[in-house]
């Protein structure tokens, strides 16, 4: 079927062999975005939470800057976590295979949290709830750095969300099933969600094509 939706874990499991090359060479802005994110992580950061860490392309760059950092990485795809562990067997990593909406993060545990190209599959409501959970997990003064696919205007965002809803209806897929379909938000809406979740001083710091990095700080 044309536009057949795939479950998230199956989608990434079937594409793991070419994933790194795709992100680095085919998704405009990602190659530079990984380096930019690494330098946005505070040099005082000791404990990092990485949501949707995948094969660790962001961590490849972060470890160059902060080789002794302790990382908790969460991803739904075990084979990707296996690749990450094989790349960095000597690093201080706790890797969890699971859904980051459900995995407990703890309270005031991390200095910084990051995510890279993973949040553009979810609703405003789901993301705002997750951002509250991230904020709770950060220490006072901690920051959340999100690199994601974001669009310029509301019409674009509305189109993708409408198409997602249509395809789910046609294929009998429930709203709460984790499906790989891009539903990017505008930069302004992302900032609004961060503020609603309790973050302060949220701002856009990098954009190349649709690859955008925003930083939100907890008081």
Alpha-beta classification = alpha/beta
The strand count comes to 10
- The shape is globular
CATH top level class name: Alpha Beta
Sheet with most strands: 8 strands, mixed
Radius of gyration: 17 Å
Q: What is the CATH superfamily?
A: Vaccinia Virus protein VP39
The structural domain count equals 1
Distance between the termini: 49 Å
Q: Quickly give the CATH architecture.
A: 3-Layer(aba) Sandwich
Unreliable stretches: none
- Share of helix, binned: 40-55%
Tell me which oligomeric state these chains represent.
single chain
Question: What is the name of the CATH topology?
Answer: Rossmann fold
Along the chain, the helix and strand elements come as EHHHEHEHEEHEHEEHEE
Q: What does it look like?
A:
By secondary structure, this protein is α/β, with parallel strands linked by helices. The chain has one domain: Rossmann fold. Helix 3 packs across helix 4. The N and C termini lie far apart (49 Å). The mean pLDDT is 96.
Helices, strands, pairings?
Layout lengths: L5 E2 H6 L2 H11 L3 H11 L6 E5 L5 H9 L4 E6 L2 H10 L4 E6 L12 E7 L7 H14 E14 L2 H18 L7 E2 L4 E2 H10 L3 E9 L2 E7 L2
Parallel strand pairs: 2-3, 2-5, 3-4, 5-6, 6-8
Antiparallel strand pairs: 1-7, 6-10, 9-10
Helix pairs in contact: 3-4
